[in-house]
Amino acid sequence: MLFQFGFYSSLLLITFSQGIIYSSILLKKGIQTGSNSSYWLSLFIFLCSLYIAPWMLGFAGWYDNQPYRDFLFYTPFQHLFFVGPVIYFYTQSLLNPSFRLTKSNFLHFILGILYVLYSLFMWIYDKIIIHDYYFYKDGMDKDFDDWYQKTGLISMLIYFIMSIRYYNLYRKLMFQVVSYADSVLFKWIKAYLYAFLIMLLLPIVFDIVILIYPALNSYQGSWWFYLFFSIIMYYVAISGYANLVVTKIPFEISVFDKKPVLLLSNNAPLEKVIIDVEHEVYEPETSPEIENWKVKLELLIKEQQLYQNPELTLADIAKKLETNASVISKAINQGFQMNFNDFINNFRVEAVKQNFENGEHKKSTLLGIAFDSGFNSKATFNRAFKKNTGLSPKEYLNTI
What we know:
Blueprint: H1 7-33, H2 36-59, H3 68-74, H4 80-95, H5 110-129, H6 146-177, H7 187-212, H8 219-242, E1 251-252, E2 261-264, E3 272-275, H9 288-304, H10 314-320, H11 325-335, H12 340-357, H13 366-372, H14 378-389, H15 393-397
Helix pairs in contact: 1-2, 1-8, 2-4, 2-8, 4-6, 6-7, 7-8, 9-11, 10-11, 12-14
C-alpha cells in the first residue's frame, strides 16, 4: 500500500493511529463495563481520527496516485454532521444513568446519513452510470466544500450549546435533590466541553491567522490546523479514558423548552417526581402549609442528625416525612429561600461551629470535624463554611 513517509504525513500518522487505538480501547471498555459513555466517546474519537485522515493520506501521496485518489474522493471521511450529536449524547450518557438511545434520538443523525447517501450517489453516478468524473471534474474533494464545512461547523456549535445547557440543567437539578452537589459536578465534563469548544474555534482562529500570515493559506500551511486538532483529540481520548464519572440520579429533561425535570426513582420505576429547576422560587412564603413543613423539616433533621449522612438526598427526607419530594423541594425553596444542597450544608456548618465551641478542634483536625458533620470533601466544606459565615474555618476559629 502506498504511503510516502515524510515530516507532515508521519506526524499526522502518529496522532491518527493513537486516535484509532484509543477509540478501540474505549470500545473495549464499554463492552466490558457496559458503560454507555465509553461507547459514545469511542465513536467521537473515531470520527476525529477520520477527520484528519484525508490530510494525512494526502501528504502520503494518495491524492496524486490512483486508485487512492478516487478512494479519498468518494469515501466520506469528515462526518461533520455526526460529531455534534455524538458529543451531545456523550454528555447525556455521562450525567444521566437513565439515558438510552431512542427512536426519536436517531433524528439527530439524519443530516449525517444524508451526506453519506450523497457521497454514495456521487460514486454511483460517476463510476457506474457515466464512467467519468462529473461531480469531481474540478479535482476537489467534496469533504472540503465550503458549504459542507460551514454548515458542519454550525451544526457542531448548536450541539455544543445544547450540551452546555444540558449540563447547566443537570447542575441545577443536583443542587435541588442531593446534599453533595459539588462532588457530582465533575470537572472532566467541563474540561472536555472546553476542549470541544477549542476544536470548534480552531477554523475561525486559523482563518484570522491566515489574514496575518497569508503564507499559511496553502496545503502545507493547513497542516498546522490538523496538527493542533489532533493534539486536542489526543487530550480528550486520554483524559476521557482516565476520568471515571459515575452518576446515580436518573432523570428526564428537555433542553428545548422550560419544562420541569422529571426525577425518576431507581427503586420504583413508576414513581416520578417533578422538580422545576428552571423556575426556582426562593421568595419567602408564609402560608400555613409552608410553615408546617418548615417546622417538620427542622425537627426531623436536628433530632435524627440526618445532615451527618454525606449522601443525603431529597428523596430520603421525603420518605421519612411520608410525602412527595417535590413538596419538600418547594418547602425548602420558599420556606428557607435556598436549595436543598445549601439547606443541608447549613446544618453541617452549624454542627461544625458547635464542635468549635466545644473545643473539638483541639482534639481533631478541621477536616475530621467536617467529615463527622456530613461534609464529603475539604473543598465543599470550605466553600459552604465561607458562604454561611463569611469567614474561612481558620478565620472563624480566631474569633472564638
